[in-house]
Design brief:
Elements (H helix, E strand, L loop, with lengths): L3 E6 L10 H9 L2 E4 L16 E4 L11 H13 L3 E6 L9 H11 L3 E4 L4 H9 L11 E6 L13 H4 L4 E6 L5 H10 L7 E6 L7 E6 H10 L6 E5 L6
Parallel strand pairs: 1-4, 1-5, 2-3, 2-4, 6-7
Antiparallel strand pairs: 7-10, 8-9, 8-10
């Protein structure tokens, strides 16, 4: 007997940003495997029948291994349950979605993917700015700030990331941004390029810091803090 898995993007954390389809799947789920950033009031939409299983990964904290999460997902579905895999933002953006899809395909378990509001879009909205600008930011790029070892990836396309006419969003980059900023400036990005640090987007402790690439690198060198955050830089509009 095989169940069914719904990969649900929960958005940045505000339950009012959930889609109607996301709420429906949560209400009908027999089990919800959720990330840390998808917990809290979002889980209030799960029905009383649902097992709630935390499988989140956070930098610097003990976290379940990815193969363990994938195995749990398969095991729950193999008992015939309706399973929601709840991921923050949109599950297809730096959400380790592919590994879990591979496990389900190998086990012959059907699934669906329900999009969520990407945290990068929510961060720009919280800052009151567009990610694109008609004459100065015709391109948007998303990049991860660390690799599987937690350090700045060595194979980043620095020429693209230093493009002064692109809006760039760095995920999971607070720890490595000082090094990234140094490399960006070495590839021609002006030190005074506008930058934003968007922390706890849509959450109760949301904070938007408007600064520059160089100043932000200095700030994060001194104190990174523990709040989840995104970094945006490029020709960002003023709010």
């Amino acid at each position: 007997m095989s169940g069914f898995v719904s990969f649900v993007g929960s958005g940045p954390g505000d339950p009012e940003l959930l889609t109607l389809k996301a709420v429906d799947r949560l209400q009908r789920a027999d089990a919800v495997l959720f990330d840390d950033l998808s917990s809290g009031p979002i889980l209030d939409h799960a029905g009383p029948q649902a097992d709630l299983v935390g499988v989140g990964k956070r930098a610097g904290r003990p976290s379940p291994k990815q193969d363990h999460v994938s195995r749990l997902l398969v095991e729950y579905a193999q008992t015939g349950q309706r399973v929601v895999r709840l991921k923050s933002g949109d599950s297809g953006v730096f959400g380790r979605l592919e590994e879990e899809l591979t496990a389900l395909k190998a086990a012959g378990i059907p699934y669906e993917i329900i999009p969520g509001v990407p945290s990068a879009i929510a961060a720009a909205a919280a800052a009151g700015i567009p990610l694109t600008r008609r004459l100065t930011a015709r391109r948007v790029q998303f990049v991860t700030g660390h690799d599987v070892k937690g350090v700045l990836p060595e194979d980043l396309n620095m020429a693209a990331l230093a493009d002064a006419q692109a809006s760039t969003v760095v995920f999971m980059g607070k720890g490595t941004f000082p090094l990234l900023a140094e490399a960006l400036q070495a590839h021609g990005l002006p030190a005074d390029t506008p930058a934003l640090l968007a922390e706890d987007v849509s959450g109760p402790d949301q904070r938007i810091t408007r600064t520059t690439v160089q100043a932000l690198a200095q700030q994060l060198s001194a104190e990174k803090g523990s709040k989840p955050a995104l970094i945006l830089y490029g020709p960002l509009a003023e709010a």
